[in-house]
Write a structure and sequence with these properties.
5 helices; 110 residues; single chain; mainly alpha
Length: 110
Amino acid sequence: MFERVMLRIGAVALTAGLVVAVVFEVLHPSREDPNNNPLVFAEYAQSSNWTTLHLGALAGALMLIGGLIALTESLRLGPAVAAAWARLAAAAAVAARPPTESCRWSTASR
């Protein structure tokens, strides 16, 4: 019973997280070349909803990671091989969090 509940939570969280992430990525201002930092930051400064867009993108990423962890939890109680893959997937989901904007821009300008 627990596995079914976690499987359902994981499926809903993954689907919702994907929809939220795509919606906020579409709304994100991206007219300027991402390697031209002065123009990109000027574009962000002119955006009145910059904070909302980034909080929405963060919420989508957290839902995706939560969905992956819930799915791995439903597999963890299965056979030994599935449990090992589930632990590996949970660790990968946490380690593969999306980079922050400052990290992405600072590495792109090098």
